[in-house]
Each structure stands twice: as C-alpha cells, then as structure tokens.
Specification:
The chain has 264 residues and is mainly α. It has one domain (11-19, 31-238). The chain contains ten helices and two strands. The protein has a two-stranded antiparallel sheet with strand order 1-2. Helix 5 (118-142) packs antiparallel against helix 8. The longest helix is centred in the first third of the chain and has 30 residues, at 33-62. It is globular.
C-alpha cells in the first residue's frame, strides 16, 4: 500500500503530506522503510547531480564563456520557424508565464484547502514561492544579458536562468507530486510525464522565440529539479521531525501504569 500511496496512506514521494482522516484516532500509516530509504537515496543522488551540472553551467555563464550548444541551438530553431510553430511556441511560453501559472496556483491552493489538504497546499506554496526567490537571486548574481537577435524582442531583465522554464518545472512538477501522493503511483507517474513534457516545451519555446540561450533553459531545469528535491525531502522528513519534537518536549511522553488512562 505504501508504494501505491493514495487517499488512505498519502505515502508517495512527499511522504505523508496530510493525514487521511484527522478525526479518526489511531496511528497514521507510514511507508515501508525500504521505500522511504530508496526515495531519500535516489533524491539525494539526483540533487547532487543536478547541482554539479548546474554549477558547471553557472560558472561558464559567470565567466562569459561561449557554449557550443548556445551557438547551435538558437540558429537551428530559428531556421525551422514557421507560422504554425510560432503559434505553438507562443502558447507553450504562455504556459510558463504569469498569464497561466498564478491563476492555476490560486485555484490549486483553494481546492486543496477546501479538501483540507493543508500539507499539500503548503508544499505547493513553498515550492512556487521559493522558485521566484531563487530565480530572482540567480539572475542578479550572474547578470547575464539577454540574447541580442535582430528578429527577437529583447526583454529588460537578465537571462540566466530561464524563469519561465524554472517556474514550469517547479509548479507543474509540484502538482504532479501532489497528485502522486494523493491518488497513487499510477496517476502520479502520468502526471509527472505530462509535467516534464510541459516544462520541456516551455524551455524549447524560450530558445525558439529568442528570449534565452539554451544554457539558460538547462540552468532553469536543473535549478527547478534541485529545488523540488529539497522541498520534497523536507516534507517527507516531517513525520521524523514531529517524533523528535515530541520526544524532546517536556510533558509529551504518555506514562504507563494506573494513571495512564487519566493522562490520555
């Protein structure tokens, strides 16, 4: 049951996001130790790998190196431009913009709160809010100018990382993880695939439209994955924190013996 998660256990990638029936007494089911350990190990390895690659890209951006992929990707995508592709890429770029994500965020949080999924709503809020802070900080730190292309509109802010791409990775990825934790692995995997396709499409559209270099998009993807792993690991560890806090707080231990029933 723990591997499938779902409404009864909610033990997906985020662990126990919310207790299924807060009013029902009894212990909250926890995922098997093996699954929890494997999730932590895989998440840790993926986080380290993402940060190593992101650090390499970021260092190249900071020293103003010219990446071969940047000099190839933009001309290639511009070379296959067509009115149909223009319409598709503009639609994809809107999926990662303030035109789409904030309304979806408000609707998602409202629905989660209505369903009393407070932990899931908090996860979505922290993941999405942290994305804005993280990308804003990185843009100011690296201060990489936007591409200067005769056929593209130059935007006023900095280029690295791609904010649209990073927002898409984090927001749609967070929604997929919530769906996995609430409805189970089968729906969760489908949601993750859809989220990955949307984020990839947003990233390609940013290069196609001339708003970003390819390395900006790769940086946004890796930073988004790293942030999702960090926030997801924190939420998965919450039951452990609660046990530590309970064991360390005076008066929280339930005594045994004749007086135990009165304390309960």
């Amino acid at each position: 049951m723990g591997s499938q998660a779902g409404p009864l256990t909610e033990a997906g990638p985020l662990g126990l996001v919310d207790k299924a029936s807060p009013a029902t007494p009894g212990p909250v089911p926890h995922p098997p130790v093996g699954i929890a350990t494997a999730t932590v190990v895989v998440g840790f390895v993926a986080l380290i790998a993402s940060l190593v690659v992101l650090g390499s890209i970021a260092e190249g951006v900071r020293t103003q190196e010219v990446f071969a992929l940047d000099t190839w990707a933009t001309p290639f995508l511009h070379g296959i431009a067509s009115p149909g592709l223009d319409a598709l890429m503009n639609t994809l770029t809107d999926i990662g913009s303030i035109l789409v994500i904030p309304p979806l965020f408000v609707a998602g949080v409202a629905l989660l709160l209505l369903k009393r999924r407070f932990g899931a709503a908090l996860f979505l809020g922290i993941a999405s809010g942290g994305s804005l802070v993280l990308q804003g900080t990185m843009k100011l730190f690296f201060a990489r100018p936007r591409p200067q292309l005769p056929w593209a509109r130059v935007l006023p802010d900095y280029s690295f990382p791609s904010g649209h791409t990073m927002n898409a990775v984090i927001f749609y990825g967070a929604l997929a993880l919530i769906l996995w934790s609430v409805f189970g692995r089968r729906i969760g995997l489908v949601a993750l695939v859809i989220a990955a396709i949307l984020a990839f499409g947003v990233g390609v559209s940013r290069v196609y439209l001339g708003y970003h270099y390819l390395t900006d998009v790769v940086g946004g993807i890796l930073a988004g994955i790293a942030w999702l792993l960090v926030v997801g690991a924190a939420f998965r560890a919450r039951p452990t924190w609660r046990r530590w806090r309970s064991s360390g707080t005076p008066g929280t231990h339930t005594p045994d013996g004749p007086g135990a029933a009165a304390v309960r």
